[in-house]
Amino acid sequence: MRADALTDVAGVRVGHATRTGDGWLTGTTVVLAPEGGAVAAVDVRGGGPGTKETDALDPRNLVQKVDAVVLTGGSAYGLDAASGVMAWLEERGRGVLVGPDPAHVVPVVPAACVFDLGRGGDFRARPDAATGRAAVEAAAASAPGGRVPEGCVGAGTGAVTGRLKGGVGTASTVLDSGITVAALVVANAAGAVLDPDTGVLYGDLFQGRVAYPEDRVHAAACRRLDEVAARNAPPPLNTTLAVVATDAGLSKAQAQKLAGTAHDGIARAVRPVHLLHDGDTVFALATGARPLDARPEAFNAVLAAGADLVTRAIVRAVRAAETVDGPGGMWPSYGELYGRG
User: Distance from the CA of 62 to the CA of which of 48, 167, 232, 328 falls in 20 to 30 A?
Assistant: First the structure.
């Protein structure tokens, strides 16, 4: 049975480390590739990205596969979480072999961060190497094909979308070819996910599954959002992160194309997008378990699915999020304002 999650790509596992309370509202999410790694690429389109090891994923460069991708809170400070993941991989001999001893490896762990500093009340409460290790250990301990917790967990713990609480969401599909495509998103956008005129999520409008809120419900939601906006400082930096994975056999160049087209999924669910205050970054992973037909239309189906799943994952992230009311601010959830519908 499919989990409708990134873990539906066989061998891919997801782990969260979440810190809340005592000034904390942040965390780290690790996507762990199967043994032997996965072909990886990235596309960065936000004007304020915080990333690590993304240059290694350029198709012109040496590294072909990676063993893990780190998505983390804490802005650039939170990139320290990748060090904990590297240490865990090194202990297991996973990484790029750089010497005659099988233990001589350098794990390449691409990472990207979202801005959530101070949202729990303490600006200095942010993920570190220990947080990264906890997240990768959680991924390794998870059941193959298991459910992935969504909402205010991992890197989505302190996420905010416009004036609403954001979080983690995931989704998957199986194409007619039998190829699986899946996405996991950390929705933390400077732009809005909500149509201000109707209260409908932009991502739902794209998907064509729209149930318009009653006028009175939408009016009450607008009043509530206006009330909390005065309490919260405008978010200075935000970012939507995504990992799109497939079991198709892709080259690095094809994986980079998949990462690029997946940004369309963000643009359908967030308006405006890719601003100077965003660090929007999409990673693509391909395990190669299934051959890809050489005809262009076969790859086109993977590209289209990747973008669609990113949109759906953003919707799920927002719907799964829960209201936060703490010393760092107040962010209502979509469910509080409009119901879980």
Answer: 48
